[in-house]
Every structure is written in C-alpha cells, then in structure tokens.
Design brief:
This protein has nine helices and six strands. By secondary structure, the protein is an alpha+beta fold. It has a domain of 135 residues: Glutaredoxin. The strands form two sheets. The protein has a four-stranded mixed β-sheet with strand order 2-1-5-6, with helices on both faces. A two-stranded antiparallel ribbon has the order 3-4. A hairpin with a 5-residue loop joins strand 3 and strand 4. The chain is globular.
Length: 195
C-alpha cells in the first residue's frame, strides 16, 4: 500500500510540472522567438549585430536532430544561459539541408546546404561565432573566431559564449583553460550545480 501511495504522489508531481514546449517551424527546426530573422547576408548580419552591441552567432540545425532538441529544451531553456546569449549575441538559425539563400562574407551566394558544405559543417547543432568587424575576402569558415560542433552540457556551452564575448581567442587563454578556471571560480563561489 505504501508503494502505491508513493507511486501516486510521484505521478501527481510529474503532472504538476510545467510542460516544456518549444515551437517547431514548418522547416522542422525548433524555434526561439528571440532568434533573429535576417536576409542571411553575413556581412550585413555582422554589422547589424555590432550596431546592437552584440556578436553574430550562426546556429546550424536539422529536422529531427535530437541534439538540437537538447539545445532548445535544455540549454536555451535555462534562464542563465538564455539571458547571457540574448544580451551578447545576435543568433541566426540555418538549416543544414535548407535552400534559403545565403551570402558568404566573400560575396559568394549559396544555399544554406551548400554553405554548410563549403564551410565544412557536418554536425548539428553547430554554432559559428563571427568576428566583431568584417574581414576582407574571407569565407565564414575562415573568418570564424570559434566553432562549437554539438550540444554540450550547460557549463561548456555557456562558457564558450562567455569566452567569445570576452575575446578569449585573442588573449591567449585557450578555451579549455578558460572553462576549467570558470568552473573553479563557480565552485569557490558555492555553486552547487557545477558539474
């Protein structure tokens, strides 16, 4: 009888949890209402991001990607992660197999899928971080200051965005060392949720 009562309580507790729902668009990709909709001209997107005091990040996803679902339902659902990204980055979503037109930094006009091939992106999600200023004559892959292939745990994910926002790629501190230092700082500050 005791087990039956515990099972009933557990079932009711699950029902009481808020349902996490992320909209899925006609293209089969999960959507965030704060992602930017642009003409996919990378140079213009970098300039617009800079005008907003932000950096441009492109996220490549695909229909049915379980890691993309994790990106949206776990990582971007975390207010600490989401709020940092929204404050510091203009995020534009691309479809790994999409046909929307893209204008690369070198001026070449491609589709989302041919751009993914040109730039060498094969995993979803892949997040590409672009420089603050327009590079001359380079493609996105050549100009990127960092690329994150995959959906990692909260701290790796958030720390990569922090590292890029702080221009860690310029100061000589490798991302892995930055990540280890930030984890140590969080633990020293008493954070209990640090893995």
């Amino acid at each position: 009888m005791f087990r039956l009562i515990l099972a009933a309580l557990a079932f009711n507790a699950v029902l009481a949890l808020p349902a996490l729902s992320v909209e899925i668009g006609d293209d089969g990709l999960h959507k965030q209402d704060w992602f930017s909709i642009t003409f996919r001209d990378i140079a213009e997107d970098i300039e617009e991001a800079a005008a907003e005091g932000k950096r441009l990040a492109i996220v490549y996803e695909q229909r049915g990607c379980i890691y993309c679902r994790k990106l949206h339902e776990e990582l971007l659902a975390d207010p600490e992660v989401r709020d940092f990204i929204k404050a510091h980055f203009k995020v534009v979503q691309y479809n790994m197999f999409g046909d929307e037109e893209v204008t690369d930094l070198d001026g070449e006009v491609l589709t989302e899928k041919t751009a993914a091939r040109k730039w060498g992106y094969v995993f979803t999600p892949t997040i590409v971080f672009l420089p603050e200023e327009l590079p001359e004559g380079k493609s996105v892959a050549e100009a990127a200051v960092a690329t994150m292939p995959g959906a990692f745990g909260k701290w790796v994910f958030l720390h990569m965005f922090e590292w890029v926002a702080q221009k860690g790629y310029e100061n000589g501190e490798h991302f892995q060392k930055y990540h280890a230092r930030r984890l140590a700082e969080l633990r020293a500050a008493g954070r209990q949720d640090v893995e």
